[in-house]
Amino acid sequence: STHTKKLNLSDDDINRMEYFIEQISTAIHNAQLYDALEKERQNLEQKVKERTKDLQDTIKELETTKEELTNRNAIIEKDLSYARKIQLGIIPSHAPSFRGYEIYTSYNPLDKLGGDLYDFIEISEDLLGILICDVSGHGVPAAFITSMIKLGMSYNRVIQKNPGVFLDYLRETLNYHMHGMYFSGAYCVINRRLNEMSFANAGHQPLLLIRDGEVRELVADGAVIGFDPDYEFKVERVKLQKNDRIILYTDGILEATKHNTRNYET
Question: How far apart are CA 226 and CA 261, in angstroms?
């Protein structure tokens, strides 16, 4: 048989037991929370280590990429420097001597490589051809087109004497190699014997004639080269007088005046 001894517990005893149980329950709960927090801390530390390693790997990759870009940029800068020397080589370093006339030039590219070009053609003792061009855009593509223009300039004296025929020859030579690029240009021929200038324009700014303190625009119809393959270049003529000044320019002059700055190609 089983003998059970009956305990007589007072209310205080019961309260103490309940309090003790509550404390044990709280301690167990806190221990569980601590264990969970410790595991979370360990997980967090592991994630931080993994993220730190990923970040370090990324930094190394960026440093490697930066070094590669720096090297490539150095190569590009070197190539651009050579390209600039080549381009400057196709720009006349000085104006030709043409008896009875004074000729001045100025070339200030915005970038290392520009899209502007001017050149002189000494056709004969009495005839001087002057070409000015402005290729769309800047940089390598524009510089490449200016080189094509230089190479495309005909050495046929008959073509060089007629501004309209000359621009048409440039168009026929270059039109199908522009690949979306285009350029405006003007070509004039000064006849010293007749004191006359003939000129044609391929969508370029008008030539300016300054006479007796007044400025007159010399306009000739013509489209930019690179678009319309059939547009006819109209040739105009003007008689020249003593002290006349003729100005050929690109839109860099207009932009520099508009914005009051020199940061434009002229």
Answer: 30
Q: How far apart are CA 238 and CA 98, in angstroms?
A: 18
Single-letter residue type at 255: E
- How many whole angstroms separate alpha carbon 214 and alpha carbon 42? 87
Token look-up 């070409």 returns 131
- Percent of the chain scoring above 90 in pLDDT: 38
d(CA 234, CA 220) in angstroms, rounded, equals: 6
d(CA 108, CA 114): 9
3-state secondary structure of 114: coil
Please name the amino acid found at residue 235. V
Computed over every residue of the chain, the mean pLDDT equals: 85
> CA 104, 122, 113 angle in degrees (round to 5)?
55
Report whether 146 contacts 133 (CB < 8 A): yes
